Amino acid sequence: MFTWMPGPQRGIVALGLMAVNTIFWCLLLFIVAFFKLIVPIEIWRRWCSCILNRIAVCWIWMNNLNHRLTTKTRWNVNGLDALDRLECYMVVANHQSWADILVLQRVFNRRIPMLKFFLKKELMWFPVLGLAWWALDFPFLKRYSKKFLKKHPHLAGKDLEATRRACEKYKKLPVAVMNFVEGTRFSKAKQIGQKAPFANLLRAKAGGLAFALSSMDGRINRLIDVTIVYPQGKKSFWDYLCGNIREIKVRARQLPITQRLQGDYIGDRDFRKEFQNWLNDLWTEKDQLITQLQS
Predict the structure, then answer these.
(1) Fewer CB within 10 Å of terminal CB in the chain, N or C?
(2) For the residues of 92-137, what is the DSSP string, one character each?
């Protein structure tokens, strides 16, 4: 409908539609969240959580529709067969920009349970959306650098403990936990600083992923490995809204989460090494796939 407009104007229209859509659904979300908060009955709160998730799915569906109306982006997607909205999944993906989140929501909405992202604690104060993420039980984590932990050793392990508490909420409903295991968005400067052994990726951080899997007590037995590629090069959230991304390639594959991937990451040195090796092998395959898709 709006694809004839110049890119910046399309971006403004898309952003306006997204804002109106967000405010409408968030008002409903906050009403349900309020009644969930004031009634301390487990079955009531579980029912409210189901309603909250359905509201969020509708919000995402409308955002996807808006994107279809304002852009001509070509979607090249494979690997979405045999997904189940009643199953629990761990989803991992490479991370390049904020557009990745919208890509994942478009690809997986109504195919699997609503994606729950691990967010930085500072995002809780993001206008409107911060409160919405809280209402939807998104896990907020406080990340500490190695330099900071050297000065404050008593805070070591606090982020993993927060991961465990967040995962406790997901044991009674189907959930898809999303984890960008690189921990931050890719850039050449970060890649050089890390001395990452990959052409297109940063080093994968295994601790948070391993701890989340063990915290779910075996409820998650499938991992969805997602690879996102922008053939024109890394694009921003604004590029996504303006329709400046001519093509997006997404490859997904399901992998079993066996007993060998669930253990004591902190206390068991052998398990920690085995898990890190498994994740590094996964990342090596992803790096090769990205090079192939880019060419």
Answers:
(1) C
(2) EE---STHHHHHHHHHHBTTBSPEEE-EEGGGGGSTTHHHHHHHTT
